[in-house]
UniProtKB/TrEMBL annotation:
Pfam families: PE. This is PE domain-containing protein. Residues 6-90 form the PE domain. It comes from the Bacteria.
Amino acid sequence: MNKLAFDHEMARETASRLDSLADRLDGQLHDAQPALGPAAAALDPVSVATARTLHEVGASFRESYRTGPHELRKIAANLRAHADSFGNADGETVDAFRALT
């Protein structure tokens, strides 16, 4: 026999943990900002070009990295919405059965 079970409280807790993970990832990116755009070591063309390249790489990394926390928050919101939906449906079902007794 197949059985489908959904624990909406656990789903809400999981969504909260995903949000916390996204917050930690954002915090780590913020802490790493100085390393992602170092200043030129000197004013010569090679140092300036190297710093510019590292800054561009850092900007690309930041943009790519930010998609991770953003996606985690979207998953958390979706999971929370489903948990609420199942929770409401469970309550309505219980109320329907109570009306029969």
